[in-house]
Each structure stands twice: as C-alpha cells, then as structure tokens.
Specification:
The protein has about 230 residues and is α/β, with parallel strands linked by helices. About 30% of the residues lie in helices and about 10% in strands. A hairpin with a 5-residue loop joins strand 4 and strand 5. The longest helix is centred in the C-terminal third of the chain and has 18 residues.
Length: about 230
C-alpha cells in the first residue's frame, strides 16, 4: 500500500482477469507462427479457467511456516500456477500506511482492488493472505505483479518507530525463504521497494526503512536456510 506521490494520478488497476497484454498485442503486425506461439502461451496460463479443472489446494495452507492464514478477497488477486506459468524473481517491500488490522481488513474488501501476499506486524507476526503461486495485485504494475511476491509491513513511512527489530527479523526470514524457494538472488535488483516499481505513485517503504540492515538480515537468514537444506 504505502503513501502515494500524487492523489490525482492513480496507478492503473491490476485486477484485469482478461487475457494478458501480450495476447492483446497480437495482430496483423505479428507473423502467423508467432501468433500461434503466443496464443498457446496465453491459453496455457489460463488452463484453470476450463470447467472442472483446478489446481489441488488445501484450504488455509501457507507457504511460510509459522504464518497465519487469512484469505484476501478473490477480487484482489488472480489465480495462477507460479512459478510454472510466471517465473518469480522478485520480492517487493511495502508499508501499509495504517495498522496491521486495517491492512488485513482492506485486503478482504473486494472493492479495494489490491492486496499483498503477506502482512508483517510490528511484533514479528506474519499473516499470509494470498498463496505465492497466485498473482497478487500489489505493485501497480501487471508485469511486476506476475513476477513477484509482495510483503506489507504494518506502519507508516514517516514513522521510524514503525519498523521494529521483530519486524525486520521476521520479514528478513520470510524474504530469505522466498528467495531460497525460487532461487532469487539476495540483492537490491531483486528485493525492491514499492517506490521502485515502474509507473507507481507510491513512496513506500520510505526513508526510514533501513535497507542496509534489512539486506544484511536477509543474507544471514538465507545462509541459515542453505545450511539447513
């Protein structure tokens, strides 16, 4: 979520359940063979729409051990089969600009049109609201949504006190697990803030988010994951 740069310049909605823009670009300028390849690619990504076909899922199942499951409204995410249909190579850091409770509530609201995979509370508690295999509408950029996992942090960009030791440590463990699962490099090209997403009007995580500290914690946690496997 986070703070917008301008109230009059809203980011585009990501909740478009139609075929992706690559399919929409298919036209007379595209060779017939290329069209067929792209069409097959899009159809492959929409396999779950076929009546009677659904990827096996367990209700309440989480991707991060210790997380509590609270389901976001299905209007705020898109069913997918990641990383098979969309490769995951990025983690995006957000700040809620509100309380933990308000973030969870708004992500359950179908009118909101956005939600992240995870919300981290000041005491280190982690709630998962969308499965990592699905596309959350969190970045304000369709391509970045498809290739990333979004993590919200309860608090305010202008309050350094929002970012507690417990929050940094819990979030770093979460990000390290995500990086290990999808072989994402632990660097600032692949772990970014919402403000760094092209086209966004948000400023989070803001100037008080300690990137040096956070990345150090993620690297340490990532080494622990490697040692345990």
């Amino acid at each position: 979520m986070g703070k917008r740069r301008s109230a009059g310049n809203k980011a585009p909605r990501d909740g478009d359940r139609r075929i992706g823009r690559r399919a929409l670009l298919i036209g007379g300028a595209v060779a017939a063979a290329g069209t067929a390849v792209l069409a097959r690619d899009e159809l492959g990504r929409l396999w779950w729409r076929v009546p009677g076909v659904a990827k096996p899922r367990k209700e309440g199942e989480v991707d991060f051990a210790g997380a509590r499951w609270v389901s976001a409204s299905d209007a705020n995410w898109r069913r997918a089969d990641r990383p098979d249909d969309y490769g995951i190579d990025m983690v995006i850091i957000h700040v809620t600009q509100g309380s933990f409770e308000s973030a969870v509530k708004v992500f359950q609201d179908p009118a909101h049109g956005a939600a992240s995979h995870y919300v981290v509370r000041g005491d280190g508690h982690v709630t998962q609201m969308i499965r990592e295999l699905d596309v959350a509408f969190h970045a304000g950029n369709r391509e970045y949504n498809e290739r990333s996992v979004g993590i919200e942090h309860a608090g305010f960009v202008e309050r350094a006190s929002s970012f507690t030791d417990e929050m940094y440590e819990a979030s770093a463990r979460l990000t390290a697990r995500i990086c290990a699962r999808y072989e994402i490099p632990v660097d600032r090209k692949h772990i970014i803030g919402h403000v760094e997403v092209p086209g966004t009007d948000h400023t989070d995580p803001g100037p008080h988010w300690d990137w040096d500290r956070y990345m150090r914690l993620v690297r340490q946690a990532r080494q622990g994951v490697t040692a345990a496997t």
